[in-house]
Amino acid sequence: MQLASAQLGMDFSVSWKPFFLDERLPGGEGKPKMDHYQAKFGPERVQQMLPRMVQTFADEGIPGYSLDGRIGNTLDSHRLLEYALIKGGAQKQDQLVEVLFDRYFLRGQPLSSKEVLLEAAAAADLEGAEALLSGGELSDDVWSKVESAHDEGVSGVPHFRIDGGGRGKEVSGGQVPEVFMEIFTSLSRTAPGAPSA
User: Fold this and answer.
1) Which residues form the DSBA-like thioredoxin domain (predicted)?
2) Helix or strand (DSSP H, E) at 185
């Protein structure tokens, strides 16, 4: 999506919405990613999936992806992302997302760990994270948004909702830049104020 936006010279705002792939995962330090995925998909399927996932990340300029590390319940990370949006807008939330993605996908750190989340908040210059994570603030907001996503038919991530001035589009799953270029081009042609043919 970012590559398509850059190639077309378009500027837009991204806001991230919470979604749980498995809300039953443990909190704290979580559990080994490989154990989780092998239990979920089976060892043979994981061995088939892993090279494709590594290549997908490499194609996006992100070398070093692996299933090493840990996975855990992401409620607190979603609360922190909601907090970032409230405190600093979409730009601050996006900044925190980038830090969290680095921690999880490249460093194998569990997003259920309070220590990992506090370090990520500090790296994103987000103040007040300690107080937020010490309580349950924004939990209801996160759950409400997750339930709304389910009600609207969202069944996995990534899932993109692209607002086009009332003529939005939705795309599920990882997509090549050309898919987004086509959507952005189509929406820009029909946007209010766009030149007519």
Assistant:
1) 10-180
2) helix 177-190
